[in-house]
Amino acid sequence: MREKIKSTIDEYKLLVNKDKVLVAVSGGPDSVCLLYVLIKLKKNLFPGLQLVIAYINHGVRIKEAINEIKFINRLGFELGIPVHVRKIKINRKGGGFESAARKQRYAALVALAEKFHCTKIATGHTMTDQAETVILNLLRSTCREGIIGMPYIRNVNDKLSIIRPLLKVTREEITGYLAHNRIKYCVDSSNLKPVYTRNKVRLDLIPVLKQYNPHIIEHLSNLYEWSSIKEAYFDRIISKTIKSSVHHRKNGITVDLKNNIRYNKYLLYKLFKTILEGKLGTKSYTKYINQFISKLPDKSEIKFKFQ
């Protein structure tokens, strides 16, 4: 399993020797495994790596959270790694609990990382989490731009990135690794109940899907990975098109489509979407894009103006 993780780190350039990494540790098996793997990598490959443990207390599961904090503080003391606990209050305004908790958790992690001058935030998301995320996004979104999942690395700003080194290993591989090495961890009881949507996908839907395809976890992960590769290629095409064909004017933006009118509907959609989001700052773009595309004349030279 460690070889898979090392290969993922090498392939996606997740770490360099001088990184200072804030490791998000909940006390559960995935994040504890991540911590131990990073310690091994520091010892064998990245001697200059610095590790900091972060625990985000959501203010729920009060008794379990107290035990998790004790466990993580003891773990940090035994491993010689500093531990920082941040308590957050979940504000559900404008969304459900899961979404609000995720946003505020990441905000707290970023704040801690910046406070302690970290260059990376490492989370323990696994291939199993990736499959769940793909399913959730298939259920919730239109998926116009391919399969949506979690990237291996995401830049927060020019000094800080979020990395997910465990995305090519399953939850079963992790629990097997921990059992083999007799590593203790905590169990979050809320993950065992089909209360939240992700839990329902994990506990109810995926077992059914496994009856049709025993390798559904790997299949969904690969589906996202190849989709993201294709999208990255299309994004490069659109980026070049915008540089050469989009011009600012006093009364709006002019798009010269003489070399782009041959694009299929999907590339035209991405072109207009990028312009509307990036240049005009609007996210209500779908109906406008459909109008633009339907009214494009069949000519090789045309200029289209957004007012």
Task: Write a structural description.
- This protein is α/β, with parallel strands linked by helices and 307 residues long.
- The chain has two domains: 2-212, 3-Layer(aba) Sandwich (Rossmann fold), CATH 3.40.50; 245-306, no CATH class.
- The chain has helices at residues 2-12, 29-44, 62-79, 97-115, 127-140, 171-180, 197-212, 216-245, 265-278, 286-295, and strands spanning 20-24, 50-57, 83-87, 120-122, 153-157, 160-163, 246-249, 252-256, 303-306.
- A hairpin with a 2-residue loop joins strand 5 (153-157) and strand 6.
Give the arrangement of secondary structure elements.
Layout (H helix, E strand, L loop, with lengths): L1 H11 L7 E5 L4 H16 L5 E8 L4 H18 L3 E5 L9 H19 L4 E3 L4 H14 L12 E5 L2 E4 L7 H10 L16 H16 L3 H30 E4 L2 E5 L8 H14 L7 H10 L7 E4 L1
Parallel strand pairs: 1-2, 1-4, 2-3, 4-6
Antiparallel strand pairs: 5-6, 7-8, 8-9
Helix pairs in contact: 5-7, 5-8, 8-9, 9-10
- Strand residue content: 5-15%
Uncertain residue segments: none
**The CATH superfamily title of the largest domain:** HUPs
Shape: globular
**Count of discrete domains:** 2
What is the CA-CA span between the terminal residues? 55 Å
Annotation, overall tally of beta strands? 9
CATH first level of the largest domain: which class? Answer: Alpha Beta
User: Mean of the pLDDT scores?
Assistant: 87
SSE string, helices as H and strands as E: HEHEHEHEHEEHHHEEHHE
How much helicity do the residues have? 40-55%
> What topology, given as strand order, has the largest sheet?
3-2-1-4-6-5
Task: Count up the helices.
Answer: 10
Task: Find the structural class using helix and strand composition.
Answer: alpha/beta
CATH architecture tag of the largest domain: 3-Layer(aba) Sandwich
Largest sheet: 6 strands, mixed
